[in-house]
């Protein structure tokens, strides 16, 4: 049998999938939840088949759904047909997606990163907001960055909220994580410029010379980059605040920095 039907909310498989909303369960299983056929398609395009594909009974036929089912089975995964009520409980939405996927998490070790593969990389210190992190991953993908490195106690990039904000880029972008000590030891061999952002910096983000590959370091939403990591940068820069606001949202600020660096590397048609 290639598909099985589950109608009970108390089924052990359904309870295990619902538990993936909790970080401790994601860490224990190494799995995460992605919602929607678009996300599933992004994963398949990156060679990532779900270990479990949950399909609503009212899901409409679609070529991408057929592909998802075929690739799930080929990879040894399960296909489970579920009720609308189960989809609501799993997604925690009144109007849920009709296709959900459970995937294996993928982290790339720091020593496996090849800096010269891309002109720009992003490192985030203790980022707390899953929406910010997901948006930064999506922006890094859009701009042609190599990946995102999480330093210290960061929010989980595989939380449902963060994954939603990536719009599928979670499958395309290299994601690494490290302690502050591990990162600083690894950073010592970085071949290009390491650039931090600080409100007290004297140089503007477009005014400082840099060598590619550039590593952009961004700090916590409230506190910014710590003194220890700022000291590890070749240069610290600021984004000018010309209005009344004294700071930018972390994801927006990271986007400004990323495009400034990648435009310099790739060239800009704007």
TrEMBL record:
Top-level taxon in the UniProt lineage: Bacteria
Pfam families, per database record: MRM3-like_sub_bind (PF22435), SpoU_methylase (PF00588)
Coiled coil: none
InterPro entries: Alpha/beta_knot_MTases, MRM3-like_sub_bind, Ribosomal_eL30-like_sf, rRNA_Methyltransferase, SpoU_MeTrfase, SpoU_subst-bd, tRNA_m1G_MTases_N
Gene3D superfamilies: 3.30.1330.30, 3.40.1280.10
Entry-linked SMART domains: SpoU_sub_bind
Listed GO MF terms: methyltransferase activity
Domain RNA 2-O ribose methyltransferase substrate binding: 33-109
Keywords noted in UniProt: Methyltransferase, Transferase
GO BP annotations, alphabetical order: methylation
Family statement drawn from the similarity comment of this UniProt entry: Belongs to the class IV-like SAM-binding methyltransferase superfamily. RNA methyltransferase TrmH family.
Protein name: RNA methyltransferase
